[in-house]
Amino acid sequence: MPELPELEVMCEILREQLPGRPMAGASAFHPGLLKTVDPPLDSLVGRSIERISRRGKHLIFSVAADLHVVIHLMLAGRLVWSGGDMRRTKATGFLFHFEDGDDLRVIENGTKRRVRVHVVRVPTDVEAIARAGVEPLSGEFTVELLLAGFDGLRRQLKKAITNQAFIAGIGSAYADEVLFAAKLSPIRYASTLSLEEVERLHTAIRRTLSGAIEEIRARSGGAMVATHDRGFLQIYEKTGQPCPECGTRIEEIRYAQKKIYYCPHCQSGDKTLPDRRSWLTR
Question: Are 48 and 20 in contact (CB under 8 A)?
């Protein structure tokens, strides 16, 4: 799933390519993908996307003060530029078609269709944006905000920092990286952190996300980015490999369709955390 760093670089690239290009139209091809009916897609015809921004994990294509297209790429969605004469495949869920002949397509591979598109008058008409928490690279994201949010919170740290209503934009991959950088256990309760640990976490969030943006920007070379190019991450999807800090084997916790990656030495006092897969056999 694209998270804040990938989406931030997507915005930078799109800002160079999109503004001022009139649209011949926009189309949704997968049932249920388009979540709104008013304003209609036809309201985009002849208009140009003037601004591209991000809120949490949502991309916002602003056509006018009262007309915006909001896209959440979810797990498998990605954006692809194509010529208008390129054959549309079954993976194409939505597209902007421009008068110059180019298309910007939302591609979603697989059988599960999760991408969400809203055409709205203001971005906060999308409920997830209306209730989105603080942007972690903004000035509003402070140690004091974390302390207040964690006060009495009996929730595991990974769940706490991926709660989009608390902090917007951090998903599973970067949460693992943040907690590794902060040397904190992903299953520790947020309410148990000391002031020094909260300060460490705050620093790790900002440095991890900022560093990832710089790395992705450099790797993209001005082309659209994809989430599979995350080889620079230190522990994400590195199960069985040595920790880059101490050499201990990276472990994972797997539950449902989710995974948590961590270093037992650096993050959990040399303890291997319980894997919920083993609970199912008891």
Answer: yes
Q: Each residue's pLDDT tens digit in the chain (282 positions)? A: 899 999 999 999 999 989 999 999 999 999 899 999 999 999 999 999 999 999 999 999 999 999 999 999 998 899 998 877 778 889 999 999 999 999 999 999 888 889 999 999 999 999 999 999 999 999 999 999 999 999 999 999 999 999 999 999 999 999 999 999 999 999 999 999 999 999 999 999 999 999 999 999 998 887 777 666 788 999 999 999 999 999 999 999 987 778 999 999 999 999 998 875 543 333
SS3 190: helix
Task: Please tell me the distance from the alpha carbon of residue 80 to that of residue 99, in angstroms, as a whole number.
Answer: 17
Domains of the chain: 4-130 (3.20.190.10), 143-279 (1.10.8.50)
pTM for this model (two decimals)? 0.93
CA distance 183 to 195: 14
- φ, ψ of residue 24 to 5 degrees: the values are -80, -20
- Kindly give, in sequence order, each residue whose CB lies less than 8 Å from that of residue 38, ignoring residues fewer than 6 positions away: none
**Which residue in 64, 62, 93 sits closest to 76, CA to CA?**
93
- Determine whether 246 is exposed, middle or buried from the number of CB atoms within 10 Å of its CB (0-12, 13-18, 19+): exposed
Given its phi and psi angles, is residue 120 left (phi above 0), alpha (psi -120 to 50 degrees) or beta? beta
In the structure encoding, which two tokens stand for residue 156, read together?
């595991």
Q: Which residues contact 275 (CB under 8 A, 6 or more apart)?
A: 252, 253, 254, 255
Q: Spell out the alpha helix ranges (H) of 30-185.
A: 127-130, 143-150, 157-161, 172-182
Distance CA 216, CA 58 (A): 18
